[in-house]
Amino acid sequence: MHNKLDFNNKTILITGGAGFIGSNLAFYFQNNFPKAEVIIFDCFRSDKTFLNGNLKSFGHYKNLIGFKGNIICGSINNKNDLALLDNHKFDFIFHHAAISDTRVYDQEIVMKSNVNSFYDLLKLAKKNKSIMVYASSAATYGNLPSPQTIGRENPENPYGYSKYVMDQIALKYSEENPELIIAGLRFFNVYGPREFYKSKTSSMVIQLAHQILDGKPPCLFHNSNQIFRDFIYIDDVIQGNIKACSPKKSGIYNIATGISRNFQEIADILQKELNTNLGTDYITNPYDGYQMNTQADISKTKENLNFDPEFTLEMGISDYIPEIIRLHGSKNI
Length: 333
Ligand SMILES: NC(=O)c1ccc[n+]([C@@H]2O[C@H](COP(=O)([O-])OP(=O)(O)OC[C@H]3O[C@@H](n4cnc5c(N)ncnc54)[C@H](O)[C@@H]3O)[C@@H](O)[C@H]2O)c1
Prior knowledge:
By secondary structure, the protein is an alpha/beta fold. It has helices spanning about 20-30, 80-85, 105-130, 160-175, 205-215, 235-245, 265-275, 300-305, 315-325; strands spanning about 10-15, 35-40, 70-75, 90-95, 130-135, 180-185, 190, 220, 230, 230-235, 250-255, 260, 280-285. Helix 1 (about 20-30) crosses helix 6, helix 3 (about 105-130) packs parallel to helix 4 and helix 5 (about 205-215) crosses helix 7 (about 265-275). Bound molecules: nicotinamide-adenine-dinucleotide. Nicotinamide-adenine-dinucleotide (NAD) binds near residues 16, 21, 42 and 135.
């Protein structure tokens, strides 16, 4: 249990609950607070794709097999769908639904999807007096040098900008409604069970592991030992969500380890865990202005949320390996 809050007999909305982080949160409540009433709101996936070829939404029923709570299929962009939530009174809202693909460059679609819906969900939180925890992103920082620190942002893609705007809206809403608790969580590079259905947008941990399990050398960009990220395991992200429900104050918080590791280390840890010695294949990095280092400043998160990440990269990968093996060869559709 991550803090003393008792979620039993509370009503909890999780938007994006068929996705990676949302479904893990749903199971956290089911396993630890069997009397909590959890309602998932998600549009699930259809066969519609963006111009980049990726699906428009990644929610998948397989992330929810075994979940016993309520599920509503609807879009946060459709007011009639959102009206289906009107007959509930939510104590907590975890707002994770979004276009989570950082490589969707249609600004209109990203802004409409991620930003406009946020006004409606904040209104719902105000009406219900719910505690609102929502997903922001490390993408708000763009390519700024580490440590990534709240208050210094420079998004470099429409997705990062949409999350940055959500943060501005949240800060203003908090100021105007000081009685509400609103916490925005800037997740860094999350990996762990139930990310598989994010396909090409899932973490490099599962993508490299499945290459290795195919018997192929993991494929990385040249100089990957110099490309650093702040990788965070899903269990610590869940801890962040839970602790964000009783913050010392409303605000925006980095959810990360505060430690940067490189992509070569991921490949090497995986080969050690999987007992292989396949070497590494290197390809040229096709991206201009690629971020070379993220390492979050988590001092404010520690202070105000009492956040204390527990998983090193080695521990997270080791915990994840059985699930990675189970999913190897599964159809990602
Ligand atoms: N995973 C990460 O590394 C990471 C990093 C930073 C921020 N985030 C943010 O955290 C949140 C959760 O991310 P995730 O990794 O679980 O992504 P995900 O894509 O697995 O989950 C998002 C969910 O939202 C649903 N969704 C999309 N559009 C919707 C709509 N219009 N109406 C209703 N549901 C809709 C999708 O079906 C999906 O189930 C997102 O807001 C994402 O931007 C994630």
